[in-house]
Specification:
Elements lengths: L1 E6 L4 H10 L4 E7 L2 H4 L7 E4 L8 H5 L4 E4 L11 H21 L5 E7 L10 E2 L9 H14 L8 E6 L1 E3 L4 H10 L4 E3 L5 E2 L1 E3 H13 L4 E5 L5 E2 H12 L5 E3 L1 H8 L2 H5 L4 E2 L2 H6 L8 H12 L1
Parallel strand pairs: 1-2, 1-4, 2-3, 4-5, 5-7, 6-15, 7-12, 8-11, 9-14
Antiparallel strand pairs: 10-13
Length: 299
Amino acid sequence: MKKIFVIGGTGFIGSHLISKLLKEDFEIYVLARNKEKAKKIPSPCKVVFGDPTKEGDWQTQLNTADIVINLAGQNIFSRWNENYKKLILESRVKSTENIVSSLKNGAFLINAGAIGYYGDKGETLVTEDSSPGDDFLAKVCIEWEKSALKAKEKRGKVIITRFGIVLGKGGMLSKILPIFKWGLGGTLGKGNQWFSWIHIDDLVSAILFLIKNEKEGIYNFVSPNPVTNKEFTKTLGNILKRPTFFRVPIFVMKLFFGEVANAITSSIKAYPKNLLSAGFNFKFENIKSALENLIKETL
């Protein structure tokens, strides 16, 4: 039985992933920062206490793992100042450095990333081969990936998962659903910016697919069919049978959210070229079927 060690397992993506892994033949260890976090971890997972941004005894346990999945990182959707931006960077890079330094030779590392790597690309379709952006989040993603790829020096496989907007219970969709149900949903600015999304079920299935097929490399975790913010808004409103007349001007978002508004409204039209080439089949390829499924689960 292979041993999997998960960092970031109590978050939105991590909790869904662990539910999927528990149905497979793995011995699962999950890192928790404290006892409160540990309460969220289901049995029969084994809990290891520690802070991934700091060296500690947790690294000894990680050193025995065959597969390590790193999902750690400070939430970016908060108002930024210089200290918070430092936290966003260090929570990703320092954690990854500590993880990589503790891997046993030949271990398989799956490290989270984000399509923020590409920066705002407007109408341009981006694949895993596209060049990085030069804004703050793009620079964070570049350093994050560099830290993870050093694991190759230990003769192991490395996968970078560049996540798009993940739709699922407990994520962004759960936060905006009440607004749309009240009939107050609307586009961000003109709504022409591209919105690269993935259903949480496809995300966790894709991770398991890559593990089972012993793949490596960089993968865009997005649906093959990105939509504009306007199309997403209209589809969600139609499913809920609610109007979506409102529009939030970009300058208002910047006033309330500061620099993070640029990340929220950036246009990234990403395509999962490498996942499709590897043979992965998406269950939810279009936004309508994905939203109908998720809203049915949450209502």
